[in-house]
Design a protein that fits this description.
CATH topology of one domain: Immunoglobulin-like
Number of strands: 17
Structural class: alpha+beta
Number of helices: 2
Strand content: 25-35%
CATH architecture of one domain: Sandwich
Order of helices and strands: HEEEEEEEEEEEEEEEEEH
Radius of gyration: 53 Å
């Protein structure tokens, strides 16, 4: 009996031991699973993709070369970068490479999103104004990892003008007037009139062949989405505005229903959308009521009168009047003398006869 009880007790202990081992194994597995979720492993860290790229979107490259003046808005897109990393943008000359000579652009940075991409617009600085020089654009990962490559653009940017685009205005006319008319007189170029027109002049808009558009904005444009709230101005000849490589002029119509107030008149390229337009300049204007036409004063013409005899005259006209006066007086004297003689003669012949002397009868 004692042996039977001992065997049963031994079997129970073995069962409890096996149960404890199973429980401990399950607990260890659960703990390992929890730690796997809580503690990141090196394989879970963000890693760069293969073949990172940097592309110039605007101005659109032609045969691998984008071009424009100083102040050009250059929009670039990057892909296959390390997700979430910050990048410093820069440049290098065409005869070098970003890996060997990286020159940072002041204030030009970008952050890669979760897919390892970014889109950024930079303004080409006035310090890089050597006409005809071409540059590669670069993107350097700011992470402390020397093994990360500096990404270089596939195309270059070439400087075409050493000054940025500039827009000015002239011949701001109210409704019904043209540059050939003198009235009403054209107002100041900074004042526009509803239903009128104005001539827009652009300089340093290069290269040739870029389509432009004139727009009015109530604010300074700093982002592409602000372009959606601008007022487009159509040309009076219904022709597009296209750069020629030199000064360009276009006359645009001001909408008749535009509200009075302060605006910015922009002359911009039409390649914006993903980023800012590549060519952009503006000038401040105001929209006001047309000026009231000035009524010309009435001019009275004075008719000169002849100087009476004895008056003071000057020059040849005075001498003539004196001569006429003398001749008139002489004629009048002769006429009076003749009349006197006639009267005396008629009085002598027509009077009553006096007493007759007596006649001699013999």
């Amino acid at each position: 009996m004692k042996g039977f009880v001992g065997r049963e007790r031994h079997r129970g202990m073995r069962k409890d031991y096996r149960l404890s081992v199973h429980v401990l194994a399950l607990l260890a597995l659960a703990f390992a699973s929890i730690m796997a979720f809580c503690v990141p492993t090196p394989s879970a860290a963000a890693q760069p993709f293969d073949d990172p790229t940097l592309t110039i979107v605007t101005p659109a490259p032609q045969n691998g070369v984008a071009e424009g003046p100083v102040g050009t808005r250059i929009t670039i897109q990057a892909a296959n970068l390390t997700p979430g990393d910050a990048f410093q943008l820069g440049y290098t000359t065409q005869d070098s490479s970003c890996a060997s000579v990286f020159q940072p652009l002041s204030g030009a940075t970008a952050d890669a999103d979760s897919s390892g991409a970014f889109t950024q617009t930079i303004i080409w600085p006035t310090s890089l104004a050597s006409i005809g020089t071409a540059y590669y654009l670069c993107a350097q990962d700011t992470a402390q990892d020397a093994t990360l490559p500096i990404v270089q653009s596939s195309a270059t940017f070439r400087v075409d003008a050493s000054s940025p685009p500039v827009v000015t205005l002239r011949d701001s006319l109210p409704p019904g007037a043209s540059s050939a008319t003198s009235t009403p007189v054209a107002g100041p170029s900074s004042t526009l009139y509803p239903g009128g027109q104005v001539t827009v002049v652009g300089n340093n808009y290069v290269p040739a062949g870029v389509t432009l558009i004139a727009v009015l904005s109530t604010k300074i444009i700093n982002s592409p989405n602000q372009l959606n709230s601008t007022i487009s101005l159509s040309t009076t000849n219904q022709q597009p505005i296209v750069t020629t490589g030199s000064e360009i002029t276009a006359t645009v119509a001001i909408p008749s229903d535009i509200q009075r107030g302060s605006y910015q008149l922009y002359l911009i390229s039409t390649d914006g959308g993903i980023g800012m337009p590549s060519l952009l300049a503006h000038t401040s204007v105001k929209v006001a009521l047309p000026p009231t036409p000035t009524i010309a004063p009435t001019v009275t013409v004075a008719i000169p009168t002849a100087t009476p005899p004895g008056g003071t005259g000057g020059g040849g006209g005075g001498g003539t009047m004196k001569l006429l006066s003398i001749v008139g007086l002489a004629g009048l004297s002769v006429l009076l003398f003749v009349l006197g003689v006639i009267l005396l003669a008629s009085g002598a012949s027509g009077g009553a006869p006096g007493p007759q002397p007596p006649r001699d009868r013999y």
